[in-house]
């Protein structure tokens, strides 16, 4: 049995090495690569992904997984080796169901669709993008066909990002959010909070300050790097080699929140148990749980008053000319300003959820065929006005704004908002377990929270399902109430704003 | 036949993709990686190399190479497809001869040996390094045994770096060099030339100036990157994605010559015919020919008076405080100062060759068993004094200085000096074909030389053997006389120094 487990681990480590190599090439392309390298880089990446896939779906891995059932069943449910066999079996069975030709066509449609979208967005030309949307929808139908029928075909797509969570479960949570968010947004619409001044905030000072904040949260130079890229992201090449990127604009301080967001993702990857290295378990548990950590550090911590008590003098010292006279209270209010706007990635904590709910609903209707891609802009604009009170003036500020659909990523958007919901559930659990957290934040000490998250969440990696993981951390299932309570307390009528 | 050729190309492209991915991971490790990533990175690299090797030595590739013989023979000798089949067959037959276990043991000994060497060099403790040298020698004997007997076992090692060139041929060239270099070094020993002042040369200004010089030579930001690393190097991820690195020290201007050296390697890789992309032909022809290009741009061009007529005002503008008053003539003499010293990588154009000849001779004696590793430091020091007139005071400045032996790279050193020899042969051919080159250099115009080298040498990649390639470029075989003539004219008794 030991020899079989060793063989399984050896084969999975190889696959992990190949996938991680692809992550390095991907990161290099987005951060550093000279532009003329793009065409060949796409070939290199396709090869790595194909070879990794071939090695993963190898029949021998399936045999080993069968032969290791007795071992799996003899171990506790959360023993590393039991989890490895169980989770790998799920992954393997899923990967085997998708024919190589369909996977290749989806990958091709994804990269071509993204190119077409970039041009269509630049031109504000939805009609030019629409055929790609139809192609992706056709491919999604073919993809859904590869699996046992689900209660809702959208379940199959969602499962790739939030395994085990159903469309009905998400809908129930989102409907509850909608009940409270729509009136809260309408009530906040006219509250006049000044934003931060428009700079200039020199890029070098932004970089240094972002690094200072991230370092307080747990960024160590021995195992992290911060670089720049057009689209900020975080990726992991090993549990001890985490790459975060940010984007800088002299006219605002968004880079600071980007840093807090991406280090949240990074701390999760860095906190995975080293025993899981080079296995399929060595990554965050789901897109939603991952986002819960970027949002926890960015918003729940990084936009809190205790954080700002510590951070405000540092911010002033970094930009004395622009912010030297701006009091703590005004800064805190400015970074928590609620103001409906068109672009999701610029949205505040309160309006953000409605951007997501809108997309979640449209995705389901497109997939079900109750909404045609021809009618999508109209549907988008109508619902946007209903949810956020703004009339969309052009598709670039509406249906064309996000890259996700162009790459065929349907089912991904809802995990952003699930992340927000879970971030507050997890925060409440941490606060209950760790008295005095906010006093520590005021001193710039985030270590107790970091250690608790590492021990209770990050270390687990993908050992358990997302539902099991959340249950273990917060003692219950997905629940929108803590998040709504948090928003009401921070932004509601009685809030100290 | 077309289908077979297409299958061969598809399989070779995959291997090339995997090897290139390894190059990206390697580069990232040397340039950027946080230190804690090292252990896992070694595993990732080992997997990529193993998978690439397995795919390359696959029996199906051998079958295709056999089946494609008629095609190969129907095409001109230098047709891309004929070269692909011919060169791949040679590579494949060579790769198949080395058992996977031996290759793995050599790779392991290489990385472990380099670690042991780094510690031994830091401590100046040759005895601690000696067992690794013995281990490498034993592995080299096993490696040599994998091949048909050669006239000299060293031929087998040399063939990995300078295919087709024999030990006897190198020895004949080196013996001829020795005849002239040893007396020339002795004669120059007492010539008093002042070096450049010891700075300070701010790193940012060095970087900008290095980039300016490289740009004049052909560095384009669309397909090149310049980064920093402890050991400068050049690598290629695609014909249009070339990475060069340099190292900066405020106390000297070595970084400028490093830039000229590495861009020479880079221009070679960048100039390979795009038709050869993702084939085994898409790299420089041999270590010696590669070095001929780094040396041509660094020394023959970059230390020439015409280059300095263009470069001197730029250098003065970059460092006005330190060099503002230093005349052209004095700068030119300073960067061509001959002074025997202990460290090879710091050696000038005249003494450099003797550093190499020394190592070439000792390597052969170690391999033949006529010199024991126990007696190596003594042999090194005696010969160093004979060739360079200096008594080696400690092993750190002697036998422990280079990394090559610690990684098991025997047979590599001679290609450095072959590169110097070929660089002048190629320079003479270019100058004969292109009148007015030096006048162009004085104007900062290096494009005619670059274009000639691209057309006559770089574009060929590995299509022909190194000997065929050199013959095609210079119209004759390896010949030390142009190099000796160049040194005599530049440094001899009658030279205008």
TrEMBL record, chains A, B:
Pfam families: Peptidase_M32. Keywords: Carboxypeptidase, Hydrolase, Metal-binding, Metalloprotease, Protease, Zinc. GO terms for biological process: proteolysis. The active site is at residue 262. Its cofactor is Zn(2+). Broad specificity carboxypetidase that releases amino acids sequentially from the C-terminus, including neutral, aromatic, polar and basic residues. This is Metal-dependent carboxypeptidase. Zn(2+) binds at residues 261, 265, 291. GO terms for molecular function: metal ion binding; metallocarboxypeptidase activity. It catalyses: Release of a C-terminal amino acid with broad specificity, except for -Pro. SUPFAM superfamilies: Metalloproteases ('zincins'), catalytic domain. Belongs to the peptidase M32 family. Signal peptide: none annotated. Its EC number is 3.4.17.19. InterPro entries: Peptidase_M32_Taq.
């Amino acid at each position: 049995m030991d020899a079989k487990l060793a063989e399984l681990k050896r084969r999975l480590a190889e696959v992990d090495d190949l996938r991680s190599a692809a992550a390095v090439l991907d990161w290099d392309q987005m951060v550093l690569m000279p532009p003329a390298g793009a065409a060949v880089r796409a070939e290199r990446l396709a090869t790595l992904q194909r070879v990794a896939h071939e090695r993963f779906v190898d029949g021998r891995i399936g045999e080993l997984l069968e032969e290791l059932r007795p071992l799996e069943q003899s171990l506790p449910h959360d023993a590393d080796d039991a989890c490895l066999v169980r989770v790998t079996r799920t992954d393997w069975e899923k990967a085997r169901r998708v024919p190589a030709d369909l996977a290749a066509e989806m990958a091709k449609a994804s990269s071509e669709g993204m190119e077409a979208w970039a041009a269509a967005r630049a031109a504000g030309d939805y009609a030019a993008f629409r055929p790609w949307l139809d192609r992706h929808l056709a491919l999604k139908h073919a993809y859904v066909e590869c699996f046992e029928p689900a209660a809702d075909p959208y379940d199959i797509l969602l499962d790739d990002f939030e395994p085990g969570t159903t469309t009905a479960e998400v809908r129930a949570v989102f409907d509850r959010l909608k009940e409270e968010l729509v009136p809260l947004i309408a009530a906040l619409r006219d509250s006049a909070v000044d934003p931060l001044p428009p700079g200039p905030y020199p890029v070098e000072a932004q970089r240094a300050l972002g690094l200072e904040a991230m370092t307080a949260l747990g960024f160590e130079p021995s195992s992290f790097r911060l670089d720049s890229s057009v689209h900020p992201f975080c990726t992991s090449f090993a549990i001890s080699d985490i790459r975060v990127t940010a984007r800088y604009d002299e006219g605002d301080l968004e880079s600071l929140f980007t840093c807090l967001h991406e280090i949240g993702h990074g701390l999760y990857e860095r906190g995975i148990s080293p025993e899981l290295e080079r296995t399929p378990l060595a990554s965050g548990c789901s897109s939603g749980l991952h986002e819960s950590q970027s949002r926890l550090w960015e918003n729940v911590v990084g936009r809190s008053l205790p954080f700002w008590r510590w951070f405000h003098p540092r911010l002033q010292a970094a930009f004395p000319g622009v912010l030297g006279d701006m009091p703590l209270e005004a800064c805190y209010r400015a970074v928590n300003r609620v103001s409906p706007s068109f672009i999701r990635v610029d949205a505040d904590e309160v309006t953000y959820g409605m951007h997501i709910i809108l997309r979640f609903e449209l995705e389901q209707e497109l997939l079900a065929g109750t909404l045609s891609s021809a009618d999508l802009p109209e549907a988008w604009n109508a619902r946007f006005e209903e949810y956020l009170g703004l009339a969309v003036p052009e598709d670039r500020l509406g249906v064309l704004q996000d890259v996700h659909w162009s790459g065929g990523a349907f089912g991904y958007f809802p995990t952003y908002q699930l992340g927000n919901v879970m971030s507050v559930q997890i925060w409440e659990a941490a606060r209950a377990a760790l008295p005095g957290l906010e006093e520590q934040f005021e001193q710039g000490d985030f270590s107790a929270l970091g250690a608790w998250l590492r021990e209770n969440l990050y270390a687990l990696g993908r050992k358990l399902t997302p539902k099991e993981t959340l249950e273990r951390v917060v003692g219950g299932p997905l629940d929108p109430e803590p998040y709504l309570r948090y928003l009401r307390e921070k932004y509601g009528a009685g809030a100290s704003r």
